[in-house]
């Protein structure tokens, strides 16, 4: 019989340590038979386990959601030193696979230690006050990030300061500048996580492009004792953040834009919520279009990125998709619509990204077209700008048998409560931002790749090239 003793020493506060002690025990019970696991002694948050293995060669593979066991290179006789790593916690670097292999009968003492990344080494500066702001267009999940940051800041014994209306709050541009920077205790904002919009308000700030105003903002932060800043926003917000970093303000960026136009990350905060809102709207529109045998033009947001339109169209069975990334023309759309109607599809849905009219549409002389159809009334009322309604009006004339309508899905895409996917991303990114600042790490942005949250250098992130899913685009339009 093989005896295995595990000393579990956790350097955390009592509550956190007890939680990880419970997680560790749960993992062990999934890896070994329950009858072979017993707790020998528990003292505070230090526990001694005893595991019995009956002459077998067990392999403990900890690729579980809660953590993993990792073999460390250093060994000495019968004493093997291992590391137990949990999400958000770290130990010394390891050099071999995530595997614990007991090769032969004998006694092995395995020492497992935690290091709290929120806890700095002696002599290192510890941040006591950090700020958070939401900038650019509002996005579902912004409030959830603020709450997550507040929770993590409370654990790290940091004070969190909320800066109102983006970078404007650092420049004192409001009617009440004294209220632009407010203390955000956790108990005050705990209930806002699920709310749409942004509790801190948001606004764009053109003045922040100028070095003078960037210096004013840096001075304002230092004057208020703010030692680090979390910026929640899009690419423009990140560039402002980079300017503050250059002035010595440690910053971490969290991508929050429904447009999903930051290529370094698979998904931006709010994008999933916006897509779901569009999907619900398009499904309802297709239902009534089917009832009345009508085609429909549906415009969605996304600025110069067609991701919302692509995902919404693919998710609802739309027959025609127009995006800024791919060229198109009104005669081509009319021809496609006519072909679908000839096949018996009288309720065609045309999904258009709002940036498709300028970004990729081939020139079309609206004035000449309307005058050729003796439609001066529309010309007087709507002008010559191509919109969803003008596109539907033109298609109605090019395809007379189509009684086509138009709908623009506007701010409802921004104003919904975040989906579970966005809420989870917000929770993880808010925690990571505080953790990075607490460790003295700055000038990085957080993202999500293949379901995992990560951080990378901001300059490298902004240089990433965006790739549009042309294969899915062709499938929608097939």
General description of the model:
The protein has helices spanning 14-31, 142-155, 168-171, 186-189, 211-223, 235-246, 271-292, 307-316, 330-342, 356-359, 366-372, 376-382, 388-398, 420-438, 458-462, 470-476; strands spanning 2-9, 37-43, 46-53, 59-60, 68-76, 79-85, 100-101, 108-113, 129-134, 159-163, 181-183, 228-233, 251-255, 296-300, 320-322, 349-353, 405-408, 444-449, 452-457. It is α/β, with parallel strands linked by helices and 478 residues long. It folds into 3 domains: 2-113, no CATH class; 129-270 and 420-462, Rossmann fold (3-Layer(aba) Sandwich), CATH 3.40.50.450; 271-415, 3-Layer(aba) Sandwich (Rossmann fold). A 7-stranded mixed sheet has the order 11-10-9-12-13-18-19, with helices on both faces. A 4-stranded mixed sheet has the order 2-3-1-8, with helices on one face. A hairpin with a 2-residue loop joins strand 18 and strand 19 (452-457). Helix 2 runs parallel beside helix 14, helix 7 crosses helix 8 and helix 9 (330-342) crosses helix 13. Mean pLDDT is 80; it is low at 1-21 and 27-123.
- Number of distinct beta strands: 19
Radius of gyration, in angstroms, nearest whole number: 28 Å
Q: State the end-to-end CA separation.
A: 66 Å
Q: If helices are DSSP runs of H or I spanning 4 or more residues, what is the number of helices? A: 16
CATH hierarchy: architecture of the largest domain: 3-Layer(aba) Sandwich
Which bin fits the share of residues in helices? 25-40%
CATH level 1 name of the largest domain: Alpha Beta
Largest sheet: 7 strands, mixed
What order do the strands of the largest sheet run in, or round the barrel if closed? 11-10-9-12-13-18-19
Mean pLDDT, rounded to whole units?
80
Based on Cα principal axes, name the global outline: elongated
Report the portion of residues in β strands. 15-25%
Structural class designation: alpha/beta
Number of domains: 3
As residue ranges, the low-confidence spans are: 1-21, 27-123
- What name does CATH use for the topology of the largest domain? Rossmann fold
């Amino acid at each position: 019989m093989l005896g295995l003793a595990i000393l579990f020493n956790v350097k955390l506060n009592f509550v956190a340590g007890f939680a990880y002690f419970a997680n560790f025990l749960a993992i062990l019970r999934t890896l070994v038979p329950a009858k072979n696991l017993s707790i020998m002694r528990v003292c505070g948050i230090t526990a001694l386990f005893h595991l019995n293995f009956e002459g077998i060669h067990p392999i403990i593979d900890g690729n579980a959601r809660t953590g993993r066991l990792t073999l460390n290179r250093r060994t000495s006789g019968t004493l093997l030193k291992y590391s137990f790593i949990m999400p958000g916690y770290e130990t010394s670097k390891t050099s071999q696979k995530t595997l614990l292999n007991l090769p032969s009968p004998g006694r092995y003492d395995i020492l497992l230690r935690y290091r709290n990344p929120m806890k700095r080494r002696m002599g290192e500066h510890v941040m006591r006050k950090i700020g958070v702001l939401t900038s650019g267009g509002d996005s579902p999940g912004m409030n959830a990030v603020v709450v997550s940051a507040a929770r993590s800041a409370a654990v790290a014994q940091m004070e969190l300061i909320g800066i109102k209306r983006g970078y404007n709050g650092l420049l004192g541009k409001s009617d009440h500048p004294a209220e632009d920077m407010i203390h955000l205790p956790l108990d005050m904002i705990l209930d806002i996580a699920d709310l749409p919009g942004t509790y801190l308000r948001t606004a764009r700030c053109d003045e922040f492009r100028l070095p003078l105003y960037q210096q004013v903002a840096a001075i304002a932060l230092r004057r208020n004792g703010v030692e680090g800043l979390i910026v929640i926003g899009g690419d423009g917000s990140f560039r402002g953040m980079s300017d503050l970093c250059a002035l010595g303000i440690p910053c971490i960026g969290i991508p929050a834009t429904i447009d999903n136009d930051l290529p370094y990350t698979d998904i931006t905060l709010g994008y999933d919520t916006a897509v779901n809102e569009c999907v619900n709207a398009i499904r309802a529109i297709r239902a009534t279009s089917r009832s009345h045998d009508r085609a429909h033009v549906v415009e969605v947001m996304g600025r110069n990125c067609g991701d919302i339109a692509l995902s919404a169209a693919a998710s609802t069975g739309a027959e025609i998709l127009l995006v800024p990334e791919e060229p198109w023309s009104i005669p081509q759309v009319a021809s496609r619509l006519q072909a679908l109607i000839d096949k018996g599809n009288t309720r065609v849905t045309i999904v258009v990204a709002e940036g498709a009219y300028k970004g990729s549409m081939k020139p079309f002389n609206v004035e000449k077209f309307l005058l050729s159809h003796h439609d001066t009334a529309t010309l007087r009322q709507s002008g010559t700008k191509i919109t969803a309604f003008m596109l539907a009006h033109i298609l109605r004339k090019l395809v007379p048998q189509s009684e086509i309508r138009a709908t623009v899905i506007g701010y409802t895409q921004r104003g919904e409560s975040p989906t579970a996917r966005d809420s989870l991303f917000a929770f993880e990114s808010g925690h990571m931002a505080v953790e990075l600042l607490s460790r003295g790490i700055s000038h990085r942005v957080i993202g999500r790749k293949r379901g995992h949250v990560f951080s990378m250098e901001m300059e490298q992130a902004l240089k990433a090239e965006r790739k549009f899913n042309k294969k899915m685009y062709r499938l929608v339009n097939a």
